[in-house]
Design a protein that fits this description.
Blueprint (H helix, E strand, L loop, with lengths): L1 H12 L2 E6 L5 H17 L4 E4 L18 H5 L2 E5 L17 E6 L10 E4 L6 H11 L6 H14 L10 H14 L6 H6 L3 H13 L1 E2 L4 E6 L1 H7 L5 H4 L12 E8 L4 E8 L5 H6 L2 E3 L3 E6 L2 H25 L1
Parallel strand pairs: 1-2, 1-3, 3-4, 4-5, 7-8
Antiparallel strand pairs: 6-7, 8-9, 9-11, 10-11
Helix pairs in contact: 2-4, 2-5, 4-5, 5-6
Bound molecules: adenosine monophosphate.
The site of adenosine monophosphate (AMP) has 16 residues, from β10 and β11.
Length: 322
């Protein structure tokens, strides 16, 4: 509560506020920054608030993002959301801001802000923003409510992830009751996808390699991406659809980011801790949902071997405890 009060005090103090989030935007990051902007504008008059970062066409429906320059950064409060470390911040001006606040639900990686509000137990950054809004008695508009609902549903994978709690449901219940949003209509925009992506999902299902230890992995090369007419980010975007498969404990999708000449790796787990392996390979994330970027196929293969060992150890521990 004291941290919330300190954050609120800074928001009140600054006339110019920039809100940012991590690279490779996802629904929780996008929705939380736009919702916080809306909250601040609805609660305080005469403030300039900018929500920044590279946009993605599939999240355009949530709202527009803003551009800033160095002069704006120099006089602004910066609130960075959903981002545990400085290398993941989607802004060129991180060193220029007058004062910095972090609000995040990732495991701690490094301190780079004046105030750090971290709740590893929160299901999502949107849940933290919602909690903050209620505790500070801020004005939650319908638009803001829709954004926060969308971010929470997405980051909890429809309330299935381990960080989904009584508090998550409590806040959601209050939000729907107070704002009367038509929440089922929001799923259309969040989950609708083209048939070519469903066909790619079929390809991935058919071609996943599965080890004896319960590790599933696939390297989707550029020919496949072109064959299905999809984006190289598409496999990563459908990774959550591969949960609850009996034989699979950890699953990993690898794609090539041709523009930046790196391999992009997305991974999920039904039990084993995977973010420690991700950190070893220039990545990070949550205990059961992580990502990494590496330069060579050798590193990709080493990461896959490490994750296979993590699965083996996990199975061993379970067998020992039987
Ligand atoms: P994704 O696989 O992009 O859905 O991300 C899953 C989780 O891993 C999120 O919490 C991300 O913030 C985190 N993550 C993804 N890629 C990276 C990376 N290259 N470095 C650090 N964390 C990452």
């Amino acid at each position: 509560m004291n941290t919330y009060k300190s954050i609120y005090k800074q928001i009140k103090k600054y006339d110019s506020i920039v809100i940012g989030r991590h690279l490779r935007v996802d629904p929780d990051a996008m929705a939380s920054e736009l919702a916080l902007k809306e909250l601040i504008l609805n609660t305080f008059k005469n403030k300039k608030v900018y929500a920044i970062g590279l946009s993605a066409s599939r999240f355009k429906y949530m709202g527009d993002l803003d551009k800033i320059d160095e002069d704006i950064a120099k006089k602004s409060l910066f609130i960075i959301l959903d981002t545990p470390d400085v290398k993941r911040v989607d802004s060129d001006y991180i060193d220029e801001f007058k004062y910095k606040i972090k609000i995040d639900h990732h495991p701690f990686v490094e301190k780079f802000c004046d105030i750090e509000c971290i709740n590893e137990n929160a299901s999502s950054t949107c849940e933290m923003i919602l909690d903050f809004a209620y505790k500070m008695k801020m004005n939650i508009s319908r638009k803001c409510a829709e954004l926060l609902f969308t971010g929470i549903v997405s980051d909890t994978n429809r309330f299935t992830t381990i960080n989904t709690s009584f508090k998550t449901f409590d806040l959601i219940h209050k939000l729907i009751k107070d704002t009367n949003i038509d929440f089922t209509s929001l799923y259309d925009k969040l989950y609708a996808r083209p048939i070519k992506e469903v066909r790619l999902q079929g390809y991935i299902s058919q071609n996943l390699e599965l080890t004896d230890n319960g590790l599933a992995y696939i390297k989707v090369d550029d020919d496949v991406i072109n064959q299905f007419g999809v984006d190289s980010a598409s496999p990563g975007n459908m990774i959550n659809n591969f949960n609850y498969i009996n034989e699979i404990l950890v699953w990993v999708f690898v794609t090539k980011d041709v523009k930046n000449d790196i391999y992009r790796i997305t991974m999920r787990s039904r039990g084993p801790v995977i973010n420690e392996v991700a950190s070893k390979y220039n990545g990070g994330g949550h205990v059961r949902a992580s990502g990494a970027r590496v330069k060579t196929m050798e590193e990709v293969d080493n990461l896959i071997k490490d994750l296979d060992m993590v699965c083996k150890d996990f199975r061993g521990d379970i067998d020992e405890n039987k």
